[in-house]
User: What shape does this take?
Amino acid sequence: MPRVAVLIPCFNEAVAIPIVVRDFAAALPQARVYVYDNNSTVEAA
Assistant: This one.
């Protein structure tokens, strides 16, 4: 079985990232999800 990684780049996406990660995890439960921040200036709540 192939291994799958989901790479999610982001910049100032604190509000959207949890939703995106949740949706990818639901669609691809076998995948590893990685989020890469590009020096955001907005902090997560």
Notes: Residues 5-37 form one domain. Strands lie at 5-10, 32-37.
